[in-house]
Write a structure and sequence with these properties.
five-stranded mixed beta sheet, two-stranded antiparallel ribbon, alpha/beta, 394 residues
C-alpha cells in the first residue's frame, strides 16, 4: 500500500472553519445586498410619489419627505431590518418586498411552535435568532402568531359531515388576563367518533360559562355546519345541567349518557371520611355491573344502605340513573369508553400541559389560537390512529 497522509484533527478543524467562514460570509453578503435593494426601492418609490405630488399640486399642498422607520422581515437568508421611506401621510414598502418576505416554512413553524410551548414573544424572538442569525422582535412574533386568526375562523366555519355515531361534549376552564384582572373563561368542546373508530375534535367555542343558552348556541352551530345527528347514536356529557337542557332542544332524539367520573366526584365530595370507601364501592358496583338489570339492583342496594345518611345524594342519583345507564344499551366492549368523557378529558390534559407555562392568556384571541393549534395538530395525527375499541363494533 502507498503512503496515506492521515487527516489530523487540526486539519478537520481547519476545513470546518473554512466552510463556516465561506458560507457565513456569503450569507452575510446576500443579506446586505437584499437589504440595500429593498431600501433603495422604498426610497425611489417615495421620491417618485413626492415629485408627482409636487407637479400636480403646485400650490404647495403636496406631501413632504418624513424620513424613515424600521421594519423587520424574515426571509430564508435570515431576519432583515429595513429602513422604510415615508412621507407625512404614508409609507412606501418596496415593490419586491412581498416576494422576499415569503418566510421559510421552517422559520414560521418554529415561531408558532415556540409560541405554543408557552414561551413569551420576546423569548421566541431569541430562539428564532438561532436559526435566522438575528433575533426577531416581539412585535414580529406577535404579527406572525396573529396569522393564526384566519385559520381559526376557517376552522369555526368549516362544514361538518353528518357521519358521527358518538358525540362527546365537555368544557375546560382557562384563565385570561383582562383589564379588571384575571378572569376564567370556559371553552366548550365537541369530540366525535365514527362507527369505524375515526375520531376528530369537531369544534370549540369560548364562553363565559356553561349555561343552557351557551350550550344551545354551541350545539346549534354544530347543527348549522352539518352535524344534524341523523347517524348519532349517543351523546356523552359531563353532567352539566345547562348542557342536558340544551340537548333536549337541539338533539332531543339522541340517547344521552352522563359521565360516571363526574358523577362519582360529585357523590364523594359530599361523603364523610369514615363512609368514603363504602360509598365509593357501592356506587362503583352500579356501573361495573354485568347487565343493566344488575346495575339497577346495585342502585337499589345503594339506596337502601345510604338514603338515611345521605338522602340528597340518593335522590340525585335516582333522578340521573336513566342517563347514567344508557351505555348498557350498546355493545359490551364499548361500555368502558361510553360511560365517561375520558376521551375528551385527555385532550384537555394536553391543553393544560401546553398552557401551564403561560400562567394565563394575555387576551381572548390568544385563547382561540392556542386551543386551535393544539386541536389542529391532534386531528391529522388521528387520521391513521383509530380507536380500536370502536373499530371492533364497525
Amino acid at each position: 500500500m502507498g503512503n496515506v497522509t492521515p487527516i489530523t484533527e487540526q486539519f478537520q478543524h481547519f476545513v470546518k472553519d473554512l466552510q463556516e467562514s465561506f458560507w457565513g460570509d456569503l450569507n452575510g453578503k446576500a443579506q446586505a445586498a437584499m437589504k440595500a435593494l429593498l431600501e433603495e426601492k422604498s426610497r425611489q418609490a417615495r421620491d417618485r410619489f413626492v415629485c408627482r405630488e409636487a407637479y400636480e399640486r403646485r400650490e404647495g399642498g403636496g406631501e413632504h419627505r418624513n424620513g424613515y422607520y424600521e421594519r423587520e422581515i424574515v426571509t430564508r437568508l435570515g431576519t432583515l431590518r429595513l429602513r422604510i421611506a415615508r412621507t407625512r401621510g404614508r409609507s412606501f414598502l418596496p415593490a419586491g418586498m412581498r416576494a422576499f418576505q415569503r418566510r421559510a416554512e421552517d422559520v414560521l413553524l418554529l415561531i408558532r411552535e415556540a409560541f405554543l410551548r408557552g414561551i413569551s414573544t420576546r423569548q421566541v424572538g431569541r430562539v428564532v435568532g438561532i436559526v435566522t442569525g438575528e433575533a426577531v422582535s416581539a412585535q414580529t412574533v406577535s404579527t406572525i402568531t396573529k396569522s393564526l386568526d384566519r385559520l381559526v375562523r376557517r376552522f369555526h366555519e368549516a362544514a361538518l359531515k353528518d357521519e358521527w355515531a358518538y358525540l362527546f361534549l365537555d368544557g375546560v376552564s382557562l384563565r385570561v388576563r383582562r383589564p379588571a384582572g384575571r378572569k376564567r373563561v370556559q371553552m366548550l368542546v365537541a369530540y366525535g367518533v365514527r362507527r369505524d373508530g375515526q375520531r376528530r375534535l369537531l369544534a370549540f367555542q369560548r364562553s363565559q360559562g356553561e349555561s343552557e343558552a351557551a350550550w344551545e348556541g354551541f350545539l346549534r352551530d354544530l347543527y348549522r355546519r352539518g352535524l344534524e345527528g341523523k347517524n348519532l347514536q349517543l351523546i356523552v356529557t359531563d353532567g352539566c345541567a345547562g348542557l342536558a337542557a340544551a340537548l333536549q332542544t337541539v338533539y332531543s332524539r339522541v340517547a344521552h349518557q352522563r359521565c360516571w367520573v363526574h358523577k362519582m366526584r360529585n357523590i364523594l365530595e359530599k361523603v364523610r371520611k369514615r363512609d368514603y370507601g363504602a360509598v365509593k364501592a357501592d356506587a362503583q358496583a352500579i356501573y361495573q355491573a354485568e347487565t343493566l338489570g344488575r346495575a339497577q339492583r346495585a342502585f337499589q342496594n345503594f339506596q337502601a344502605r345510604w338514603r338515611q345518611a345521605y338522602p340528597s345524594i340518593v335522590r340525585q342519583l335516582q333522578r340521573d340513573l336513566p342517563e347514567l345507564l344508557s351505555f348498557f344499551h350498546f355493545p359490551r366492549h364499548l361500555w368502558k369508553k361510553l360511560r365517561t368523557t375520558n376521551v375528551i378529558e385527555r385532550c384537555f390534559v394536553e391543553v393544560r400541559r401546553r398552557t401551564r407555562p403561560m400562567v394565563c392568556f394575555v387576551n381572548l384571541q390568544s385563547v382561540d389560537r392556542i386551543v386551535f393549534s393544539i386541536f389542529n395538530r391532534m386531528n391529522p395525527q388521528w387520521k391513521n390512529r383509530t380507536l380500536h375499541t370502536f373499530t371492533q363494533a364497525a
